[in-house]
Design brief:
The protein folds into 2 domains: 226 residues, 3-Layer(aba) Sandwich (Rossmann fold); 86 residues, Nucleic acid-binding proteins (OB fold (Dihydrolipoamide Acetyltransferase, E2P)). The protein is globular and about 75 Å long. A 6-stranded mixed sheet has the order 6-7-8-3-9-10, with helices on both faces. A 5-stranded antiparallel sheet has the order 13-17-14-15-16, with no helix packed on it. The chain has a 4-stranded antiparallel sheet with strand order 2-1-4-5, covered by helices on one side. With 339 residues, it is α+β, with helices and mostly antiparallel strands. The longest helix is centred in the middle third of the chain and has 18 residues. Helices cover 26% and strands 32% of the residues. Helix 2 crosses helix 3 and helix 2 runs parallel beside helix 4. The structure holds adenosine-5'-diphosphate and magnesium ion. Magnesium ion binds next to helix 1.
Length: 339
């Protein structure tokens, strides 16, 4: 079991109120991602759950039991860091076995658990190597193996893939998702990368300045961001945010339209613009245009739509996909219903 309840939790460092007040429910077996810009309090919240920091107020419960005052080792959680924190002089086998040795577990049982973890992580052939003889991805898997053998009620990951190159991050995302599928253990995963959040999470928690902006599934956040912050943070390229006459005509302070919801044409359309940059990714092209009366707009168009810098392009928003926000930045109802 591994449900985690965060109840009225706050954290202050000296004068700085890093987490004003958080309430959050993490269900047993859920893959929950804390995402937000650097410095928003993601690691602090994770460290409060782990017991590596003391709360300034509130309670933390694991499986309904109050662990607010419990030491990290008593919480039954395992943390995996960005810096793998492996022992360079020890073999992979001994690195993974380390927490079990510390707990004086029987050697035969240790071997069984280490081999089991190695199998799940495709490390069986590397057990006798040292960390220095492994790739970055393999090292991170060893660090995860060391967490797995402890059979925690939840895994806590703090930006575990940040040190890897882009291709390897993509592979490791899949591996960690698959690991969650196999183990079905609660995972709480911190990242600043909204793509990791979108691709891995059952539930995303968007944090900003120590506050929760929104909690929901990836598609809920994509389809119905409840404010401008979430609208701008989730989705890549970012949602276009438009103020002025066009927004007023939709009875909103700000109107948002995602790049993938703009139809391009070389002949005609609602908006006329001049291409500033066309980023050709192959399947897609990210078209950056300066639109008359609106300013810079990004559209995600088919890779076959050939345009170059300086050319004229027409863009037409799919108005069924508009997002509207009031003067406080809060989402209004669907655009077509008016207000
Ligand atoms: N031990 C500490 N002492 C003082 N300030 C801290 C400490 N740890 C974190 N902070 C501050 O708390 C804020 C949130 O930090 P952190 O949780 O590490 O953010 P994130 O992980 O989202 O990048 C930052 O402004 C950071 O400087
Ligand atoms: Mg951090």
């Amino acid at each position: 079991m591994g449900s985690i309840t965060i109840r009225n939790v706050s954290k202050t460092f000296g004068e700085a109120k890093v987490i004003p007040n958080i309430d959050l429910e993490i269900n047993d077996g859920e893959f929950v991602v804390f995402v937000g810009p650097s410095g928003c309090g993601k690691s602090t919240l994770l460290r409060l759950i782990a017991g590596l920091e003391d709360v300034s107020g509130g309670q933390i419960l694991i499986d309904g039991k109050d662990v607010t005052e419990a030491a990290p080792a008593e919480r039954g959680l395992a943390m995996v860091f960005q810096s793998y924190a492996l022992y360079p002089h020890m073999s992979v086998r001994n690195n993974i076995a380390f927490p079990l040795k510390m707990a004086n577990m029987d050697q035969a049982l240790i071997n069984k658990k280490v081999e089991g973890a190695a199998k799940v992580l495709n490390l069986t052939d590397y057990l006798d190597r040292r960390p220095g003889q492994l790739s970055g991805g393999q090292r991170q898997r060893v660090a995860i193996g060391r967490a797995i053998v402890r059979e925690p009620s939840a895994f806590l990951f703090d930006e575990p893939l940040s040190n890897l190159d882009a291709a390897l991050r993509g592979t490791m995302r899949l591996e960690i998702s698959d690991l969650h599928y196999q183990l079905k253990t609660t995972m709480v995963y911190v990242t600043h990368d909204q793509i990791e959040a979108m691709t891995m999470a059952d539930k995303i928690v968007v944090l900003n300045r120590g506050n929760i902006e929104q909690v929901g599934s990836p598609l809920e956040l994509y389809k119905s961001p409840r404010n401008l912050f979430v609208a701008g943070f989730i989705g890549s390229p970012r949602m276009n945010l438009i103020e002025g006459d066009y927004a007023r005509s939709k009875n909103a302070k700000t109107v948002g339209i995602r790049p993938e919801h703009l139809l391009p044409s070389k002949q005609s359309g609602l908006w006329r613009g001049t291409v500033t940059v066309a980023e050709h990714l192959g399947a897609d092209t990210f078209l950056h245009a300066n639109v008359d009366g609106l300013g810079p707009i990004t559209a995600r168009v088919d890779g076959e739509f050939g345009v170059k810098h300086g050319e004229t392009v027409y863009l037409t928003p799919d108005e069924s996909k508009l997002h509207r926000f009031d003067d406080k930045g809060l989402a209004l109802g669907p655009a077509l219903t008016g207000a």
